[in-house]
Amino acid sequence: MDSQSCIKDFRANFRPRLYQLKLCPALSDDYHLVSEVLNPLIHFISHHIIFANIKDWLVPIFTTQDLEHAEASGKGSIDIMRNICEHAKRMMLPEFVQFGEAIVEENSHVAEKLMERVDELLATSKVSADESVQNGAFSLQPRTNSSSKFSSVESANHFNSYGSASAGHSSTFADHRTSGRSGSGFQDSFSPLALCSNHTTKRNYTIQSSSCTNSTHAGCTALPSGQELSRIVRHSGQHPSEVYDMSTTTRGLALIINNEDFENFSKRSGSSLDVTNLYNMFHYIGFKVTIQRNKTAEEMKTLLRQFSQHKLLGTVSALALVILTHGGSNDCLFGTDGTFSRCGPVSGTFITKMDIIHMFKGSICRSMEGKPKLFIVQACRGEEENSAQCYQTAAKRAGLPTKHNVRLRSDAPSVTPTSVVNPSTTSSASSTYQHRHDSPGSIKSADTADMCFVYSSSYGYKAYRTRSAGSPFVQVFSSTVRRLAYEKEFRDIVQEIQRYFNTEPLPNNMMTLPDFSLQLMRPWYLNPPKWANSA
Hints:
- By secondary structure, the protein is of the alpha/beta class.
- It contains 17 helices and 17 strands.
- The radius of gyration is 23 Å and the shape is globular.
């Protein structure tokens, strides 16, 4: 078979055979499957691929920091490719498919080796193409009435959606033994991992697990010993009882709300890439994730109320909420129905930080009382901009696009012609739409205990995003958490991110400085699962 035919055959068969292999119970976890495929081939790949020849193919797949780390740690192409392979072992399956397709460009001999390895594993696992989930793996179940605008949903073993679905739909984040109950509204979820893929199908899928343990809840039992907590505080010298407990098997639940398409504002192109990066980060640190797309302000409030009262919060150690949307002054976060009048944003088309605080404070969200609650916001917080000098050299060094090939977009709600007034009125009109709960002293300080807000920009300033790479903040945040989660306390991780942005300009001569508000009562070590450290 000639080189072109070999690569064509690889593109046609690599993905379906990997998912066929995933039906094997021992390989149903993405990490173990990727490791089994890649481990025996790392030496071959690192000696037969020149990093410089495929670097451009890797840029869309790896974060800037991962590539920088791989290059900085290697003394030559062989070392760099070995580091790249080690990073690839942390990938979810759809990402790994992209990685495989990238490294076989003009390397048909590598394509042959990868396919040989997959076929070898298929032969030894004896998984047939039509083998059902009775083997203890997962099933892909088409959703015939999905309202999602995305054309495909890739399956992922650790992807879960909140609540119970109606008959014929999967129920995840819920006890699988009671999956037949009717819905609570968390049904419009999807896996983001296919969003960067060039080989998508035209069907939506959701995941249903057939496995069940004897624990109170499958996947959420506590670890049998105190070794985990002793390990995570080894650098701090603190007693395990002095830090937040992060020992449940499922470390936490995470909800990501991604508003990309708006009725009156510009589209937030590139935001789906942020979803992918965040999903992978949460999976890496042991969280189960659901993603909700394009929600109105009222729908956002409904989701937050349901999330804050979800029964499984009592079985996990932490909670995370991510909102990716257009924003404005006074920390207003717009729904897809966000609207301006001549007096400013229209009431009922946005939510505020205070809405979030009131829904997740200890007296309301009882299951999370005394547990860390993380809130991540990628949205503008005003109209101010921060310029920088000599950004071109720094942008190239950081691997970010330069002004010659990218348009830097803000998450301020650029209003379409159907809207009433230009968004520049946001700041001047802010006093007219301040939420009624925003007055000083309207809540007790204890209500914000154990909460941690992380913003993509400082108060009053714009947040930025690119069509081709998503938000620089999300890129750096997700890669830094994955790099430091096993060693540093969360406050130190956030400060590391701030230090990075304090010296690294963005494209178009702009700078941004993430902001955070920590009301943590004790040190918070994320304590990723053991497999993450061995990745």
